[in-house]
Each structure stands twice: as structure tokens, then as C-alpha cells.
From TrEMBL:
This is DNA mismatch repair protein MutL. Residues 435-577 form the MutL C-terminal dimerisation domain. One of its GO terms (cellular component) is mismatch repair complex. GO terms for biological process: mismatch repair. InterPro entries: DNA_mismatch_repair_CS (IPR014762), DNA_mismatch_repair_MutL (IPR020667), DNA_mismatch_S5_2-like (IPR013507), HATPase_C_sf (IPR036890), MutL/Mlh/PMS (IPR002099), MutL/Mlh/Pms-like (IPR038973), MutL_C (IPR014790), MutL_C_dimsub (IPR042120). The gene is mutL. This protein is involved in the repair of mismatches in DNA. It is required for dam-dependent methyl-directed DNA mismatch repair. May act as a 'molecular matchmaker', a protein that promotes the formation of a stable complex between two or more DNA-binding proteins in an ATP-dependent manner without itself being part of a final effector complex. Belongs to the DNA mismatch repair MutL/HexB family. Signal peptide: none annotated.
Amino acid sequence: MSNIIQLLPDHVANQIAAGEVVQRPASVIKELLENSIDAKASRIQVVIKDAGKTLIQIVDDGQGMGLTDARMCFERHATSKIKLADDLFSLKTKGFRGEALASIAAIAHVELKTKTEEDEVGTCIKIEGSEVVSQDPCVTPKGTSICVKNLFYNIPARRNFLKSDNVETRHIIDEFQRVALAHPDISFSLIHNGSELFQLPPTNFRQRITNILGGKTNEKLVPVEEDTEIVKISGFVGKPEFAKKSRGEQFFFVNNRFIKSPYLNHAVVASFDGLLKEKSYPTYFLYLEVDPKSIDINIHPTKTEIKFDDEHALYAILKSAIKHSLGQFNVAPVLDFERDSELDTPYEFKNKDASAPQVEVDRNFNPFQNEYPKQSYSGGTTQSFRREKPAQWESLYSGMQQETETDVDIKQIEFESEEVTGNLFGSKEEGPEKSTFQLQKKFIVSTLKSGILVIDQHRAHTRILYEELLKNITVSAAVSQQLLFPLRLQFNNHEIEMLKDLKESLEQTGFIFAEIARGEVEITGIPTMISESEVQILLEQLLADFEKDVPDNGFSQTDLLAKSLANSMAVRSGTLLNTVEQQHIVNKLFACKEPGLSPFNKTVFTTVSVDELDKKFA
């Protein structure tokens, strides 16, 4: 029997390794950025075209490589960080596997230009599908420049697996932000299709967060500091009132490496217990420094998951540190019997000198005299005046007896109306018959000839609004209500770009944008179906939905926009509706094209026939 097990060729093995390391263009950028940081670069520039599918270029001013190193770096498991197996347990660098460049070169066209400070000329190497095409000396500045072109050109199935350019760009920006937040002392820039998305100068942690997420982020942050033998914690958490509807702004960094940890995230959420609204998520940027020997970062190919030796202690320390910070900065209530917050010195009086109070005493005052002279001091002269007795004080109460004895017609007294105002659909008159009623503030129950109709009020209202919004967007027939004072809302740079793409569709739903500038949006008109206080929440939820799945064509964008707005604007479960509002939903629902399903393909209503009820009582 012939042997059936054989070794894979190197180029096949590299392609298999690439499947673990390189999932999308963002994975390439992450690996190359980590290599630039390990090379001690102080300035890193990222240039991409077509969301990285056509070009990814990383340029740094790090140490660079010589001729031999430039050729060796593309070999599998070639690394300068590990020499012994024990080195895996004391890692202080980013890329250590030696798989990144070999994997990238197996599935793309790669051009490397690098030069050390000692060399007079640099080295240029071109590789296509793991094969070295050329290796020549070149003129290049100190540092390294890597161009990755035509990603997955030799694996069409993987290339077809990639999402739209908007989605892939979102992933690239996420990876870029994670690396930039972990290293505020390094200058970063990101250019996409010729336009500059980020230009981040070297600064501190707080300023780097503000530069990435917008200028108004600074006032939302609460500093967290804790230093123990197990872990040193630093960073910031967001104030509870600025919690978002999505999990986007949540960052953990362990030894300057971004990680994902549901366990530690639970500790953060637990520390905000009682401070967050329902379905809101806290913002945090937490930097943890631990002993490299106490963690294992080699359990996942992307190195975003870490195994801690003592997770329980880390959980308790992190939770208590955040709670302490929230209480220390008066964000959360604290219980302290030895401290009275009324005695705290205001910040503006912190450095002011105390002034002795001056008391002026009128020594001629005698409370037992009916008349007494009182002196007034003005301009160095003394004036005396006397308090006059009130003359005929009994006349002040004249007429009171007559008014008391006057008969009052109680029927003419008008009491304040207890009628509920501010109805959902504007009508205040109820019909002559109450053919519907509300069950558990969630379902609308109506009678039919054949039985009972039960409607989910939120799903029904979502279907109604969805079809109205689709009609408004396509026909451009939406009505806006002008705001007396324009709304100014803060968003980060990426959210601003998304709003620019959605501006035309949003205007067809009733929004009026006066200006969409860097970090700020000014709104002068909103749809008549929403209130002014709901605009911020509605737009945040809309952007969160689009971040999850940004569609390619205009129809899909319109559909997703209508779904997101309808879901946010629809009446919620737990809202009390009067009879007119209940009947309005029922009538509008059965005027829809698809009354039986919500926009998310969920059942809107169900019926219970008389026969089914009879069986219940059989």
C-alpha cells in the first residue's frame, strides 16, 4: 500500500496560513502597523484604495532592514522576537509569530522598500504569490514602505467573500483606531482614495481619544487610576448620561495591545449598575499593564484574545476601580459618613485667599421700644429716622367678614381637567364604541366575527411607519417641522462621513440639515412624526445599524434607512395607548401592503377563533 500522507508545498501552506491571519484588508493593516511599531517608528502613514482591495501601503520611519533581513522576513516563522520557547511567556512586542508577511505575500502582490540608517542605499523586493520577482537596490529614506496590491488575486473565492467597500473601510478604520489609541506617542495618518480621514499628532491618551472621536468627547470622560501588584489600570470611562445604543466605543488594552474580553466587559457593566438606561452600553478606554508572564496572548491567530492567570482578582480590581472613580467625581452616589459634600471648596475658589467677614452693629437698637431711632450711614453722614406706627390697623381686615358670609355657587366652580393631553396621533375625541383594548401595555386586542384579533403594537406601528417612510423617500413627499432653535449634535469623523452619504435620503424623510461640518451637525428641521428630544437617539441608532451592515446600492440603503427609522420611531411595548390610538393602529395596519409581517419578518398579529376558544372550555 502506497503512502497517502505527504507534506504540503510551501506556497500551499502559506495560503492556508493566510486564511488564519488575513481575513480581510483590515487584517493586513493590523499586522503591518504592528511591525512598524516594533520597528520603533515615530511616524506611520497608511494609504488605501478601494477599501484596501486595490492598494494598501504602510510607510514608517522606523529602524528599517538590511538586505538579508529584507529577504528573510518573508519566510515562514521568521521573526526577531523569539529565540527560545520561554520567550513566548515574556513577550513585549506586537508581531512575534513570523507569519504575517509570508501569509500576505502568498495572496497578493507585495513590494517592499526598506533602508537602515547605516546603509547608503536601500533594498527593493517584489513578490507575487510567494515567488520573488525581483530584488534590487533602491533609493529610499530610512524606514520601511510596504505596498500590498490586489489582495486575494489568486484566491477568487476569498475575494468574493469580501463585503462592500463601505463595510471593509469601516473594519479598516476600526483596526487603525485601535492601534492609534494604544500608542498616542506615535504620529498616525490614514488616507483613503486620496482623502485624508485621520491626521493624529503625537500626544497623550486623553488627547488622542479626543482627536479620534471628536472634540466634545473630552467632557464625557471620567479618569480611572489604580495601581496594584496584580495590575496597573489607567484610562477613562464615559459618563452614564452619554452611554450609547451600540458597543462601538469600548476598548481594552493590555500591555498596549487591543483585546476583546467579555469577562472584563462584564466587570465594567457591573460597575455601572443602576446608572445606565435600558439597552445602553458604557463607553470606556481602559489600559491594563500586567506582568507578561501572567498572560498568554498566543491562543488566537489574530492575538485579540488573552488568557489571564488570575481573572477573578482582575475582575474585582477593575470593577472597584471604576466604581471608585465614578463616586470620586460625583458621577455616582457615594456613602461616606465622614464627608459632607456641602463643605467642599468650589473649584473656582480653590486658590483664593479667605477674607474676614465684616459685621456692622446698630448699638442704638432696642426691640422693646415702640419707637426707636435707626441710623443710616452714607457718605460719612449719619441720618436718623423713626419707624411709624401703622394707623388704624383694624381697617386692613375690613370687608373680610362680609366676603366670608357671601354664598358661593359651587356649581359655577371650574375644576382643572384631568383629561390626558399629548395624544400620540393628535386626536382627542374617542369613538362611541370601544371595540379595542390594550393588554399588558403591549398587545392590542380587537374582536372579529370569527374570534379575537391580537396585535403586537410595536411591530404594527413599525410596519406602518416603514411603509410611510419608504413612500416619503421615493416620492419626496415628507413634511418637516421647523425648529425655533437649531439642534447642534456631536459625532466623530466616521459618523460624519456616513451622515453625508445619508443626507439626501434623510432630507426626504423630513430632516433639514443646515450644516454637516467636522465633528458637528446642525439640524433646522425634523420629521413631524418625532420630537426634538428623540433626534439624537434616533440618529445614533441609525448610524449603529448602518455600521453593522452598510449596503451597496441605493435601494438597499433606502430600505435599511426606513427600517432603522421606523424601528426607532415606533411606539414601544409598555406604552399606554387610549382607544383612539389603538383603533388608529388597527386601521392603519390593515391599510398596509404587508400587514402580517414587520419589516424584520416578524409576526405582527394573530387570531384566535371561536372554535379554539370552545376547545379551551371543553
